[in-house]
Amino acid sequence: MVDRRPTQSDVARMAGVSRGVVSVALSGSPGVSERTRQRIRDVAEQIGYVRNLGAAALAGHFPTALGVVLPDLRNPFFEGLVAQVQTHASRHDLLPLMVTTLDDPARESMVMHRLHEQRVAGIIAVSPVQTAGDLVQIARSLPLTIIGTEPLGGSIDVAHMDEDAAARLVSAHVRERGWARVLHLSGSPGPGEIWVERRRRALAEAFSGMPFSHVGVPNGAPISPILARFDPDDAERPLAIITHNDLLAMDVVPAVHSLGLIPGRDVAVVSFDDTHMAARPEWSLTSVRQDVDELATTAVEALLTRQGSPAADGRETVIAPTLTVRSTS
């Protein structure tokens, strides 16, 4: 057993072959008999040798990983999306490298630059906060797919839910159930407000003709005082509360209870994303579903296709939403 980190030369010496044969055998390339390949693998496992994929990528000019850039890890929607990206990336022998940006444009820019230095196959960015111009510039030298936005120009591929169709689904449900007023809650304005604003506009249009209010909730702010301003116990004008995502709805439901009201009976709560948390009985949220499997498949395939046409115009994939109705509405 060697005392330092084993190398390909150590494997070659112990297996009785050349270093070049070891490289070919462990990369899975043809030209080595299965008997020799297995002997080399056995020796590598015995001495604890692990391929340096970073060096292999630099030498062979092929990517071994892809970058996944997320705002944070708090939102359960991101959890489901990342799981699907991992599944689809593994089918192409790619390792996803996950990084969070905390909705900071400078950090996001730095993260993407570092991933580029790592020679990733490309980057999947979820709701990025840099300007469209900055993102277009990045896409000129590195395949970039964005989940959660409409086309930004250049060679950026995008995949997103049909926000207008989603808003119409919510509106039809709320009107059918007889809720008379709408309060839309989102995060407070910030660098990523462009995506929040797009959803607000779609909802405002879908609820045309009904009283519609929007409030941006500062991070960590108590929800109950905000709800109290809108007389949620007014039985003659029952209130529907629409949240930007399930994460915010999970704060709204206990706030409704704290006012002595019951979601689904006294007020409606409708959210977006339909994550696994929405289905839990303690929340039972009516929520708009955007298919994370379709989003992840589209994003990974777009990056792989982009390898052969780096300068082509970006493509847009629009995901159809559905509404899962539960007890909160």
Secondary-structure topology with pairs:
Elements: H1 8-15, H2 19-27, H3 34-47, H4 53-60, E1 65-70, H5 76-90, E2 95-100, H6 105-117, E3 123-126, H7 132-139, E4 144-147, E5 157-161, H8 163-177, E6 181-187, H9 193-206, E7 212-217, H10 224-228, E8 239-243, H11 246-258, E9 267-273, E10 286-289, H12 292-306, E11 316-319, E12 322-324
Parallel strand pairs: 1-2, 1-3, 3-4, 4-5, 5-11, 6-7, 6-8, 8-9, 9-10
Antiparallel strand pairs: 10-12
InterPro entries: HTH_LacI (IPR000843), LacI/GalR-like_sensor (IPR046335), Lambda_DNA-bd_dom_sf (IPR010982), Peripla_BP_I (IPR028082)
Pfam families: LacI, Peripla_BP_3
GO molecular function, one term: DNA binding
List its traits.
DNA-binding, 434 Repressor (Amino-terminal Domain), 19% strand, DNA binding, alpha/beta, 6-stranded parallel β-sheet, transcription, Peripla_BP_I, Rossmann fold, 3 domains, 329 residues
